[in-house]
Amino acid sequence: MSRDLLRSGWKALESFTSDQSRGVPMPEVQPMFHGEPIVLPDTRPDSFSVSLGDAVARRASRRAFLPEPLELAELAFLLRSVSGVRQVIKRQGGGVVTLRAAPSAGARHPLDTLIAVFDVNGLKPGLYRYMPLNDSLDFTGRVPSPAEMTSACLGQEFCGSSSVVFIWTAVPYRTEWRYGPVSSKLIALDAGHACQNLYLAVEATGAGTCAIGAYDQELSDAMCGLDGTDEFVVYMAPVGKVRKAGS
């Protein structure tokens, strides 16, 4: 077992010349749309409210979901909690930097959020990509089945019985452009930040989630239509309604 990924590794940057320092253009913040943007509904800041103390106290991995749909407004709230853009900063040398709901090393945000929708009111089943700059969804043209999702998650059946599965993919070069040899660790840390935001946010929607680190890489990448090199799946989390305590 290699433990190097867990170490700082920062000394490697002393002899590293980044593409950023070479003047190579910064990679795009998000890919191009496949089709027409699907606009998400507005949600007031107080539409979904739970105290931070309660959210932390109730946080748990939940693997049993009710046969109830998620509302589109609830999904929009969760997406914004995970990947929502709070500020766009234009760089002098071109491109933009985004500040978002979850932190990212150097504000590089190498993760994209895809969602496999199975049961969401107001949204057809299928695989969508969240486009943070536009706060909208882009339909990928793919429609994974619950059985396909279960297989991709190594037989974990609750993944296919959820309303939606959050799928985080990594576009490594967004981070490598600046941080080169230490990028892998930074990207992994970013994934943890995003998923923890989801764990806390679902508590305000009557839903639950469970982080999935055990999945079939090749099946997952193929399901999402990814090349497995310049973009690939790194983390998943099914979301569905859960029974409230005492009910």
Report on the structure:
The structure is a single chain. The protein has 247 residues and is an alpha+beta fold. It has a single domain, classed as NADH Oxidase, CATH 3.40.109.10. The chain has seven helices and eleven strands. The strands form three sheets. It has a seven-stranded antiparallel beta sheet with strand order 1-8-7-5-9-11-10. It has a two-stranded parallel ribbon with strand order 2-6. Strands 3-4 form a two-stranded antiparallel ribbon. A hairpin with a 4-residue loop joins strand 7 and strand 8.
Keywords:
single chain; 247 residues; alpha+beta; NADH Oxidase; seven-stranded antiparallel sheet; two-stranded parallel ribbon
Give helix and strand order, one letter per element, not per position.
HEHEHEEEEEEHEHHEHE
- Secondary structure tally: strands: 11
CATH architecture: 3-Layer(aba) Sandwich
Q: Considering DSSP H and I runs of 4 or more, what fraction of the residues is helical?
A: 25-40%
Question: What value does the average pLDDT take?
Answer: 93
Largest sheet: 7 strands, antiparallel
CATH superfamily: NADH Oxidase
Helix/strand structural class: alpha+beta
Number of domains: 1
What secondary-structure arrangement, pairings included, does this model have?
Elements: H1 19-22, E1 38-39, H2 52-58, E2 70-71, H3 72-83, E3 85-90, E4 96-100, E5 111-117, E6 120-121, E7 126-131, E8 136-139, H4 146-152, E9 164-170, H5 173-179, H6 183-201, E10 207-209, H7 217-224, E11 232-241
Parallel strand pairs: 2-6
Antiparallel strand pairs: 1-8, 3-4, 5-7, 5-9, 7-8, 9-11, 10-11
Helix pairs in contact: 3-6, 4-7, 5-6
